[in-house]
Design a protein that fits this description.
Helices cover 30% and strands 21% of the residues. It contains 17 helices and 23 strands. The chain has helices at residues 7-23, 58-61, 236-253, 262-268, 284-295, 303-314, 328-333, 344-356, 368-379, 385-410, 473-488, 521-524, 542-557, 577-582, 600-609, 629-642, 648-660; strands at residues 24-29, 42-50, 53-56, 74-80, 87-98, 118-123, 144-151, 158-170, 175-178, 192-195, 200-208, 215-219, 429-436, 442-450, 459-469, 497-501, 527-531, 561-564, 567-568, 571-572, 587-590, 614-618, 672-676. The strands form six sheets. Strands 1-2-3-6-5-4 form a six-stranded antiparallel barrel. Strands 7-8-9-12-11-10 form a six-stranded antiparallel β-barrel. Strands 15-14-13-16-17 form a five-stranded mixed beta sheet, covered by helices on one side. A hairpin with a 4-residue loop joins β8 (158-170) and β9. α5 runs antiparallel to α9 (368-379), α6 (303-314) crosses α8 and α8 runs antiparallel to α9. The protein starts with 6 loop residues before the first helix and ends in a 17-residue tail after the last strand.
């Protein structure tokens, strides 16, 4: 036992050490046919988080330098599951690394790899092994922890553990600072960091300090940044976490063997805080069972669906700074420490009740939702009577509302966040705003979630930044946009990206940016531009408001008529306000020249002032002598086929996908952008602060 370890932490370490060691592995080169049991030097450590899945650091699987590929690389995993009686070496394959750009750009030798610096490894053979218990909390407590990994103190590789305290976080919570109570030795990178008070893994050892003890770990919550799933598929994160929860649920229910499980050990951990508060929390067995029952249900339709249930159960909006909850268990993790006067057990049971009557993305296994409700009702028996009555009423009301939604869908009415056949979702969208710094080529930006018509004007900030060059916007916005998409995307459709900027920035190539993988944003999802809110200007009069509403409604109903706004037979022109006012309400003004130069910049302002909510612009080709006639001809045919305005954002996405797939018939649409000022999706009127004076 080390000096400085408290009595409670020492006892927790003794209880947890066998479980963690049984799930921690040594990572090394893959065994070959000539020496199948040879392992070679240690690259680092890792640990099983679900049957067949090992979590480690990206820099561990990147052993060998920049010339080594990461995703798809095969490596060796040596494990010893202790009481399971299984020990050996197997081959694993790197399924993905975070961040994805590490595959293309890596740091210099001995430099820190970019956060989150994680790798998920798939085991290529069926084996029996132990798994750690991962935290569901989005933010760990700064308590005593233990970290484990492979060391060679006595000349032989073995899994050992040390203890310290979490000293804080870094990189917006992505990294955890480990205290200097002990050394992090070579080979321990990729090992688990365990919260001794709660008996759950909160981090992955990343790096040690060059001077003194301690170092950095990566929060396991960063697993939520795994690549997004294609529409209609279950993402890798949800698959792995479902397997994780079912593993511990099965271990808890099993009557085979006498070895202690993580759930058993949780009940033996020394109490933390007020001993009477434990009565207001679920027991370890209850939480394991609840996570298992939630894992047996289909995944949620969207992150926002989870956040809405959390808000209803918690009694207040969840912290907007927390990572997007992608599974039902993530929502459960947002219910710890509810507002004063509210019990944690009550909040979790309310949440579980709402999940049991939720509209799932696909039909659940027969009886699984009823089984969840039966468990909630039985668990509430030990709690106070008013809560039992409240949960029963909540369940009955939820069933009625679910039946009403299902009848509406059966009658052919769209509801919720599902995308209409040819239009946009009614759910939340991602809003990107950018403001120029006067005449400087630097911009402030903000990424938010815009709730949409269901909650008019409700805006949830995701991240913001200042003084980024135009060329640097794509890289600066990669992570914030990815987080926003995780919050808004649904099983049925990718969320809309709304880019609210001044008209001279309508030429930003946002549709060509990549956030995840190598597919451009404009191919993955609908992308539209919007005029920024008129901050400080005279509010529009009633006539202007009515004119905009009438023109928007007329364009949505169709048929559509195009009109060249900034050119006449290929020559630039400036449209007169009287001419724009006189155009029919179903007109879509079209611009074919650069948005940041005249006459197009002035035309875009004039079109907006005239009340047109839908317009088209494009980034002109590099060759100034290129004819714009093919663009106008192709657009006219597209508007004719669309028939009305509603499907235009989705049809433009389809055009980009065709061009990305090398369809020459879609090349005319290269650089085209849609201005889409939907009056039902009001924009915020405030701008971010521009720093201290």
């Amino acid at each position: 036992m080390q000096d400085g370890r408290t009595g409670g932490a020492a006892r927790a370490y003794e209880l947890l050490e066998p479980l963690v060691q049984a799930a921690t592995v040594r990572v090394h080169a893959a065994p070959d046919g000539y020496a199948p049991h040879g392992t070679g030097p240690t690259w680092g450590s890792g640990f099983f988080i679900a049957p067949g899945w090992v979590l480690t650091c990206a820099h561990v699987v990147g052993e060998g330098g920049a010339a080594v590929r990461l995703v798809g690389r095969e490596l060796g995993i040596t494990f010893s599951s202790g009481a399971y009686g299984a020990t050996g070496t197997v081959t694993g394959r790197v399924e993905c690394v975070l961040p994805e750009r590490l595959e293309e750009r890596r740091p210099a030798r001995h430099a820190l790899w970019d956060l989150p610096d994680l790798a998920l490894v798939r085991i290529l053979a069926p084996i029996t092994h132990a798994c750690v218990r991962l935290t569901d909390r989005a933010r760990p407590r700064l308590d005593e922890v233990a970290y484990f990994g492979c060391t060679e103190d006595l000349g032989t590789p073995e899994i050992t553990g040390r203890t310290t305290r979490l000293r804080g976080t870094a990189a917006a919570g992505a990294a955890l600072r480990l205290g200097g109570d002990d050394e992090i030795e070579p080979g321990m990178s990729g090992g688990p960091v365990v919260d001794l008070a709660r008996g759950e893994v909160v981090g992955v050892v990343k790096a040690r300090r060059h001077t003194g003890g301690g170092g950095l770990a990566v929060s396991v919550v960063q697993l939520r940044t795994l690549p997004l799933a294609a529409t209609g598929h279950v993402g890798l994160y949800r698959r792995v976490m479902q397997a994780h929860d079912l593993y511990h649920y099965d271990q808890h229910l099993s009557d085979l063997g006498s070895r202690r499980t993580w759930t058993d050990v949780h009940d033996e951990l020394p109490a933390v805080g007020d001993p009477y508060e434990g009565r207001r929390r679920l027991t370890a067995a209850e939480r394991t069972t609840l996570c298992g029952l939630l894992a047996e249900l289909p995944p949620p339709r969207s992150s926002e669906a989870v956040r809405a249930l959390v808000e209803a159960a918690r009694g207040e909006e969840p912290d907007p700074g927390l990572p997007a909850p992608l599974s039902w268990r993530d929502g459960l993790g947002m219910l710890h420490d509810p507002p004063a006067g509210a019990g944690e057990a009550a909040a979790m049971l309310r949440y579980a009740t709402d999940v049991s009557v939720a509209d799932h993305r696909e039909p659940p296994s027969p009886g699984s939702d009823e089984e969840l409700w039966d468990w909630v009702r039985a668990t509430a028996e030990r709690l106070w009577r008013p809560l039992r009555r409240e949960l029963g009423e909540r369940h009955e009301q939820g069933l009625v509302q679910r039946d009403r939604r299902r009848r509406a869908r059966a009658a052919g009415h769209t509801n919720g966040h599902a995308r209409p056949v040819d239009g946009l979702t009614r759910g939340p969208s991602v809003l990107l705003e950018a403001w120029a710094h006067g005449w400087e080529d630097v911009y402030d930006w903000r990424v938010s979630v815009l709730a949409g018509p269901a909650h008019p004007g409700r805006l949830t900030p995701v991240d913001s930044g200042v003084r980024v060059t135009r060329a640097g916007l794509a890289e600066a916005l990669r992570v914030p946009l990815a987080e926003a998409f995780r919050r808004c995307d649904t099983h049925e459709a990718a969320a809309l990206l709304e880019v609210a900027v001044a008209p001279e920035l309508f030429g930003l190539p946002v549709d060509t940016w990549t956030v995840a993988g190598r597919v451009p944003l404009g191919v993955q999802r609908p992308v539209v531009f919007r005029h920024q809110a008129d901050n400080g200007d005279t509010p529009p009069d009633d006539e202007s408001v009515h004119r905009r509403a009438d023109r928007w409604a007329r364009v949505q109903a169709g048929p559509l008529a195009d009109e060249r706004a900034d050119c006449a037979r290929g020559r630039p022109r400036t449209p007169a306000p009287e001419w724009l006012d006189a155009l029919p309400d179903n007109t879509v003004p079209v611009h074919c020249r650069a948005a940041d130069a005249e006459p197009t910049r002035g035309s875009l302002h004039a079109v907006h002032d005239a009340g047109y909510g839908v317009a088209v612009t494009r980034r002109p080709p590099a060759d100034p002598a290129a004819d714009c006639a093919p663009f106008h001809r192709g657009l006219r045919e597209e508007l004719t086929e669309a028939g009305r305005g509603a499907p235009l954002p989705v049809r433009l996405q389809a055009l980009r996908a065709r061009a990305h797939g090398a369809d020459p018939d879609a090349y005319w649409a290269d650089g085209m952008a849609l201005v889409w000022d939907d009056p039902a999706r009001a924009l915020p009127e405030d701008e971010p602060l521009q720093g201290d004076l």
